[in-house]
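In response to reviewer comment 3 from the previous cycle, which asked for concrete evidence that the modeling workflow produces usable outputs, we include below a single protein chain processed end to end. The sequence was submitted unchanged, and the resulting structure tokens are shown without manual editing.
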Amino acid sequence: MKVCGINEGDNVMKIIENCAALTIAASDSGGGAGIQADLKTFSALGVYGTCVLTAVTAQDLNEVSAIQAIDPEVVHKQLKAVLEGFPVKAVKTGMLYSAEIIDVIAETLAPYREIPVIVDPVFAATSGSKLIRDEAIEHLKEKLFPLAALVTPNVPEAEILLGKTLRDRNDLEQAAQKFFEKWKVPVLVKGGHLPLADKTVDILYDQKGMVVYASDLVKGVNTHGSGCTLASAIAAGTARGESLKKAVSLAKTYVTNSLKGAFQLLPGLRIINHFWSG
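The workflow returned the following structure tokens.
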């Protein structure tokens, strides 16, 4: 079986020329999420990676102990430099932190509507640490969702956005439909936080209707960074010219394999391995 042109026994695919993807996100000092995870994913999937830094965080697998936001004007200049200097075919956004940063990103991206934007609405780290200011969530919905080709909330994020508790697959399906009807933007509601036996289920909803993606539940691995990795893998597939449906499918397979081929960091601690090999 091949995944995005990758044989199961390979860990890196052929680089596609004239193809760059851009991540707009924060730095993770632990290296497993944020900018670091996104760039690893782009490289693993054969897409040249560029980045715009929105914040610097001090974090490990247990907590985020400090956040320093980047000045919005510096964010703007980074973004203009990349968009004007590189053949960006897709954009992925992650932790954006403040309303001011979101506003400048939306204003700068607005003239580039031909570039698909994958919005990962990062509200909190796996550890529970808050990664966005309260007022910034409204700006995310009002300014950035209209520019998105896809929004990828997990269960807690979808609950915040929709004001509804999600308990099972039926709730996921209803949430995806409600999200699309409310914002007219394709959505992938990720069900990894739900106790669904040995499978995880994600729901894609767009103008063509609903698609259900089921994958193996990988146990015994710290999943820190898996949401960032999935969104950036979708962006990589989109940059390579895949349809949204295909890009999501390939991205899910990549993340599942990255968890199955986890990196043994310490005794009893396995973490996502972006350069997995079968």
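The domain at 16-271 is CATH 3.40.1190.20 (UDP-N-acetylmuramoyl-L-alanine:D-glutamate ligase). We consider this sufficient to address the reviewer's concern, and the full set will be provided in the supplementary archive.
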